[in-house]
Design a protein that fits this description.
- It is built from 15 helices and four strands.
- The chain is mainly α.
- The N terminus is likely disordered.
- The longest helix is centred in the first third of the chain and has 42 residues.
- Strand 1 and strand 2 form a beta hairpin.
- Strands 1-2 form a two-stranded antiparallel ribbon. Strands 3-4 form a two-stranded antiparallel sheet.
- Helix 5 crosses helix 6.
Length: 479
């Protein structure tokens, strides 16, 4: 089958109703001009990967211990990198270099696997993306609250009652995201991803420094090969559920495959996007794995089997309070950017669907160019303003009702990791490469996929059990 030419893409783009896509500067297929590079793609990946998941890794290692903790972390990093490389080749179809562009993850699945699997993929992807935006709302609010609490502990002592509601913090975060959500697409937020990536490295480094300081202080810290001890720290059933939940937390820490195609769609066409994206994935996954490993190992060494669920907001550290404040400020700034990385595909999907469903509706398709000082010209749409605002408000409300950090993050990671990171990239790769059934490569790819299913089911079970326990003891909006 002959590869499709850029002219084919241009013709396809012309079929999109006017007003559904900004038309300031166009690429060879009639869409926005792409300017992304290896640097910007790596920044997007680091922003998407190093998120709130890093804060749970010390706790995850406390459940798994020195034996299983590093093994699970390294296994997830290798699988994520391998499957991301497969997925990068599926950006264009049928040929990875000269084929037709697939603008979203769902488009790629539809091109290679058909409509049925496309629907399943879309459901998994958008549930995960919505879950991530809810999780980031929770995490940012907790970090904002931790700044106030650290000052309270500094003034009144470590035993003071400094608990408070995070509802107001979630409202502030939602207000910021409402403004940023008016940026039309990924191409307009590259700078936000670079800032967010720098923030993620900064707060991870602060966590590492604080952990090293606590280790140097000494103290009664107990670590083991297998983590928390049955009969001493937890019961046998609690040990099992916590191990499962920690696997979900580590899976969440590597969540980014669901936005890989969207990130790749920001890259210039020369050099070929798949080659640049593979390099960006290697840089992004390698960088994050190094930070993850250091944060998990040093965090576990510092706190032992009593490691808090969030090692910067769980107040395993109290002093220097100003450094803890800087770390939490960096978390908040980073997740403000990460929220946009994960919600932009949702916005794009909904707006594209609405434009195609009602192409003659002027409210949906009308745009005007607004000149904003220091930013430049941006397309503005009342439809985008209203619907994106409602989406941000909805995620904030869900976060207020279910503000459970570890359980929510573990559940999101467990539900989405297998289908989005493993199953669909492998299936598309086999379709693209025309791998024969029951061949050696087909067999080991399917065995790996089956292992992923088992791990995901176990992690979902652990996170659900923790979430049910938390809900039983929680009253919404209790100030």
């Amino acid at each position: 089958m002959a590869a499709e030419r850029p002219e084919d893409n241009r013709q396809a783009a012309l079929e999109i109703p006017q007003g559904c896509e900004p038309q300031i500067d166009v690429d060879d297929d009639g869409r926005d001009k792409r300017t992304g590079t290896l640097f910007t793609a790596s920044a997007h990946i680091i922003t998407a990967v190093i998120g709130s998941g890093v804060l749970t890794l010390a706790w995850a290692f406390a459940q798994l211990g020195w034996l299983f903790g590093p093994a699970v972390l390294i296994a997830f990093s290798i699988i994520t990198w391998f499957c991301s490389s497969l997925l990068a080749d599926c950006y264009r179809s049928p040929d990875p270099v000269h084929g037709k562009r697939n603008y979203t993850y769902g488009d790629a699945v539809k091109a290679y696997l058909g409509v049925g699997k496309h629907r399943f993929c879309s459901l998994a992807q958008y549930v995960n993306l919505v879950g991530c935006t809810v999780g980031y709302t929770i995490t940012t609010a907790i970090s904002m609250g931790a700044i106030k609490r650290s000052h309270c502990f500094h003034r009144n002592g470590h035993e003071a009652a400094c608990e408070q509601s995070n509802t107001a913090n979630m409202i502030i975060f939602a207000g910021i995201e409402i403004v940023l959500s008016q940026l039309p697409n990924f191409h307009k937020i590259w700078w936000l991803s670079i800032v967010a990536a720098l923030m993620s490295i900064t707060y991870s480094t602060i966590g590492l420094g604080l952990s090293i300081g606590k280790i140097a202080e000494g103290g009664d810290v107990r670590t083991t090969l297998t983590g928390v001890t049955v009969g001493v720290d937890v019961s046998a059933s609690e040990k099992m559920w916590r191990m499962f939940q920690s696997i979900g937390n580590i899976a969440f820490a590597y969540t980014y495959s669901n936005v890989l195609i969207e990130i790749q769609d920001t890259l210039k066409s020369s050099p070929p996007e798949n080659k640049v994206m593979k390099k960006a994935s290697l840089i992004g996954v390698s960088t994050t794995t190094i930070f993850y490993f250091l944060c998990a190992v040093l965090g576990y060494a510092a706190f032992g089997n009593k490691a808090p669920g969030n090692f910067l907001t769980g107040f395993g550290f109290y002093e220097p309070f100003w450094l803890i404040d800087i770390g939490n400020i960096c978390i908040a700034i980073h997740l403000i950017g990460a929220y946009q990385v994960f919600c932009q595909p949702i916005f794009h999907f909904a707006e594209r669907w609405a434009c195609r469903r009602w192409p003659d509706n002027s409210f949906l398709t009308a745009e005007q160019i607004v000149d904003i000082p220091l930013i430049g010209e941006l397309p503005f749409s009342f439809f985008r303003l209203i619907w994106r605002t409602l989406y941000v408000i909805l995620t904030a409300l869900v976060a207020m009702i279910f503000p459970f950090f570890n359980d929510v993050l573990g559940l999101i990671g467990a539900v989405s990791f297998w289908p989005l990171t493993m199953y669909f990239p492998m299936e598309m790769h086999m379709a693209q490469a025309k791998i024969r059934k029951f061949s050696v490569r087909w067999t080991w790819l399917n065995v790996l996929s089956c292992v992923g299913v088992v791990v995901s089911v176990a992690a979902v079970s652990g996170s659900m059990q923790g979430l049910i326990q938390d809900l039983a003891n929680y009253r919404p909006f209790n100030v």
